[in-house]
Specification:
- By secondary structure, the chain is mainly alpha-helical.
- The protein folds into two domains: about 1-230, Rhopdopsin 7-helix transmembrane proteins; about 230-445, Rhopdopsin 7-helix transmembrane proteins (Up-down Bundle), CATH 1.20.1070.
- It has 17 helices and no strands.
């Protein structure tokens, strides 16, 4: 597997996905132009521009490590994001005009500075100015979200935060400089695509769209490169992981809808576990494609450890919340503290080679045992009420989710063919027991 080629395929595909999302976004925004204020309309347009520029930045970084090539697209991202935030924050035209002037000055500096300064000085000046600009954008976005919390302002914060991580990768080692950082490269694009495609639609679509875009971009790029390299077994492994990921993604929207409409905590925890385990399948397919059978990519291991812990903790909380309605908040705090501790201890920074994540697995199994007890108790209650079919489907569905996390954790200890078979079986079990099962012909129910 050629990591650079995988990133280039993924970057190109992500830009295409982002372009489709932007087209949908602009068409929907155009339909409400006469129904919203001009300030709101401009804020939406600027947000669309800044979101699309993220894809451009990733594509440029995938094909060149020259930081000066990023000066114009990153400057456009910063100024359009800043303009969007300013238009949300205030209707004062003087502030808007000042923002436009600042944007023009920054763009002019980005274009002309390399013509008069040495390359090394240009890069240092670029890094410093971008650092200051990012800090300003983050402060403004957090302030706007704090003043007027909404899915849109929350998306601004998430978009800026995730992009800072990716820009740190680009500025230090470059996208093609370290394959261990691949799990985070396309996160900003997935967030941007999800937000753009869900505009003027229920915001609950964002988690499903984010997970779907993240899975499609990464898995397709891995699969295409595997075929190009004639690594058909790797392609089969990626395809099995894709089937498992798709089976989990299908049900996310149902539980997010239930969580938002009923304000219940059980569907919320189930949705979190579905998102985490679907991303776990994707990240594991990356690790397997690049690392199997001899390499150990520590960042991939930690990413899988994080997602597996989130999956199992959410699994346990969903089970406990079915009968601990009054004390679930206190239990959640305890579980959050334990999960955070396990995640930190699983990192190389904390372990420093003194232990591995395998030494922490017994604590995860203890959480799993508590969750199993909770589901057995819930199933018995449902059976006593006469809902035997609902009880069996509920237990089978949740067991399939947590089994996916366990298979990933032990996959390097079992034959790859068995892992592929288990992925497909998990997908079938999820599809069979899901409350929203897709049909080959007809509507989803």
């Amino acid at each position: 597997m050629d990591f650079v080629t995988v990133v280039q395929i993924g970057a190109t595909l992500s830009l295409a996905v982002l372009a489709v999302s932007l087209t949908v976004f602009l068409r929907r925004v155009a339909t409400v132009r006469g129904k919203v204020t001009s300030t709101t309309f401009r804020a939406l347009v600027f947000f669309g521009m800044s979101s699309f520029m993220i894809g451009v930045i990733v594509v440029v970084a995938a094909f060149t490590n020259d930081l000066t090539a990023q000066r114009v697209p990153i400057t456009i991202f910063v100024v359009t994001a800043m303009a969007s935030i300013v238009h949300i924050a205030t209707d004062d035209r003087r502030v808007h005009h000042a923002t436009y002037v600042t944007a023009m000055v920054l763009l002019l500096a980005a274009v002309t500075a390399p013509l008069y300064l040495p390359p090394h000085t240009t890069q240092q000046l670029m890094l410093f100015s971008l650092f200051v600009s990012f800090i300003m954008v983050m402060i403004l976005s957090v302030w706007v979200f704090w003043s007027s919390p909404s899915p849109f302002t929350g998306s601004l914060v998430a978009l800026g935060s995730s992009f800072i991580v990716v820009w740190g990768v680009i500025a230090t080692v470059g996208i093609a400089g370290n394959m261990e950082l691949m799990p985070v490269i396309f996160i900003p694009i997935a967030i941007a695509s999800a937000v753009l495609a869900s505009i003027l639609r229920p915001w609950r679509m964002i988690p499903t769209l984010f997970t779907a875009v993240y899975a499609v971009v990464n898995l397709v790029s891995l699969g295409v490169n595997a075929l190009m390299s004639s690594e058909f077994f790797t392609f089969g492994f990626v395809a099995a992981a894709a089937i498992a990921a798709l089976a989990t993604i299908v049900s996310i929207d149902f539980f997010v809808e239930q969580a938002t409409s009923t304000q219940a905590v059980v569907p919320t925890y189930i949705a979190v576990s579905l998102i985490a385990v679907s991303m776990l399948f994707v990240v594991h397919s990356m690790e397997w494609a690049f690392a199997y059978p001899s390499l150990i990519l520590r960042t991939f291991v930690w990413a899988e450890w994080i997602l597996a812990n989130v999956t199992i903790a959410s699994f346990m909380l969903a089970g406990l919340a079915t009968f601990m309605t009054k004390s679930i908040r206190h239990v959640r705090r305890i579980v959050l503290a334990i999960t955070t501790t396990l995640i930190v201890l699983g990192s190389d920074f904390a372990s420093a080679g003194r232990w591995t994540v395998e030494a922490l697995v017994p604590f995860v199994l203890a959480e799993l045992a508590i969750g199993v007890y909770a589901y057995v108790r819930t199933a018995r209650r449902l059976r006593k009420l006469g809902a035997k079919r609902a009880a069996s489907h509920f237990v089978a569905f949740m067991s399939s989710i947590v089994l996916g996390a366990l298979v990933v954790l032990v996959s390097f200890e079992i034959p790859p063919v068995l892992t592929m078979v288990l992925f497909v079986m998990i997908a079938l079990a999820l599809t069979r027991s899901s409350p929203r099962r897709p049909k080959l012909l007809g509507r989803t129910h």
